[in-house]
Amino acid sequence: MSESDSPFRLAVVVSHPIQYYSPWFRHLASQPGLQLKVFYLSDAGITKSEDVSFKTSFAWDIPLLEGYEAEFVENRSTQPGTHHFRGLNNPGASRAIRKWKPDAVLLFGYAYLTHLRLIVSPWLVGVPFLFRGDSHELFPASGWKPLLNRWLRSLLFRRFSHFLAVGRANVDYFRRSGVSNSKISRVPHCVDNRRFQLAAPQADLDAAEWKQSLGIPHGAAVVLFAGKLEDKKRPMDLLQAFLNLTKSADAVASVLLFVGSGHLESSLKDASGAETGRRVFFAPFQNQTAMPKVYAMGDVLVLPSFGRGETWGLAINEAMNLARPAIVSSHVGCGPDLIIPEETGWKFEAGDVEALKDVLRSALSDPVRLKKMGLRAKEHIANYSYDRATGALLQALHLKLAPSGLPAASV
Fold it and tell me: pLDDT, tens digit, for every residue of 348-376?
């Protein structure tokens, strides 16, 4: 533990530079009494490489390494990536972290080979570990496997001194894995709210031009899907629900816009058939600087994910910064926190296409209410900011790990 007049040294371990986390690390690095260093296990995101889920190659177009200290630890995986267990294989991670002499280690995730090596590493014995992840158990599962998984997690989690939960479903996940309430702090999941809100006025102008170029009819309400066109995101559920809705006698003038890429892209275009370019539109993958414009295209964002693969769904945070309400399935981790029914959005039972159709009908039936809900969503997302997350993290460090190592002014 640090001396009272020395900064608290927090080592952070993350798979690769991530657009959601890097601005938070800059924010943390600016806090008095805290010295931060991020150890990355891969350079994906800053060097152009193929994303398996998006089925395209890119590097994020916003600064991901500015404003904080970082080190890349050599990854010796023969197939590097976060799509499989051995994709992060960094034998030198423990020594690199030990060399920096941290007061604590904050580990993002536990699902890769390097994570497990760090958890059992003799080089880091005596160094407190904190855990950050956004898993949940909103997907109902039965049988012996979930019980076995919980038991195995409970063994791994014994190594951690404290847990930084992103939201309600994540708290439940930790509790079911044997973690006591006293070891859990709520550190809300967040994005760079300021960047998205500052970009909003120009994004609205750019979106109007983009709609025109795509051929979206003027005045039509836009139902938006933005992300990976893959199985767990269930874009086909949304397409089917929307097409069913358009056949109803009371259907309002609306279009469905898919922005993104993935292996389901051709299937979605085939399934939309003659409606492609009439009521269903497609736009390709967009990089980070274009995302405010993407959300400005929609009147409501839909995330219809199904299964245990979906975690929080940070796209919802981003859209709410553009004053857009959202529709999420019951398997999306942010639902219990971000969706206040009939205020900031709607929830429906995952996989129930008819239920999604009914929610779409309700959402699109009153444009004035939709606008008001968007403003309420923007107001609500202020509770999920880097300021709130930083305050909660410092509070946890102060109370649990370093009562004399962090100045009270920083908490």
Answer: 999 999 999 999 999 999 999 999 999 99
Distance CA 190, CA 27 (A): 12
Within 13 Å of residue 269, how many CA atoms lie on the same side as its CB?
12
Q: Quick one: which of 157, 98, 164 has its CA closest to 134?
A: 164
Beta strands 254-261 and 280-283 are parallel
Counts of helices then strands in the chain (DSSP H, E): 14, 15
The three-point CA angle 273-274-279 to 5° equals 100
pLDDT tier at 2, thresholds 50, 70, 90? very low
Tokens of 388: 């709130």
Is 280 exposed, middle or buried, given 0-12, 13-18 or 19+ CB atoms closer than 10 A? Answer: buried
| 3-state SS class at 303 | strand
* Six token digits for residue 302: 């839909």
For range 181-207, the mean pLDDT: 97
Q: What is the 3-state secondary structure (H, E, C) of 314-376?
A: HHHHHHHHCCCCEEEECCCCCHHHHCCECCCEEEECCCCHHHHHHHHHHHHCCHHHHHHHHHH
Instruction: Name the nearest CA neighbour of 211 among 274, 254, 269, 264.
Output: 254
pLDDT exceeding 70 applies to what percent of the chain? 96
- What is the spatial distance between Cα 385 and Cα 210, in angstroms, rounded to a whole number? 29
Counting beta carbons within 10 angstroms of the beta carbon of residue 262, is it exposed (0 to 12), middle (13 to 18) or buried (19 or more)?
buried
Give 382's DSSP letter: T
Backbone conformation region of residue 268, classed left if phi is above 0, alpha if psi is from -120 to 50, else beta: alpha
Q: What is the pLDDT of residue 346?
A: 98
The span from the CA of 276 to the CA of 408, in Å, is 58
Run of H or E including 52 = none
Contact 363, 325 (CB under 8 A): yes
Closest CA relative to residue 73, chosen from 100, 43, 52: 43
Nearest to 349 by CA among 328, 365, 370: 328
CB 64 within 8 A of CB 19: yes
**Is 180 buried (19+), middle (13-18) or exposed (0-12) by CB count in 10 A?**
exposed
pTM exceeds cut of 0.90: yes
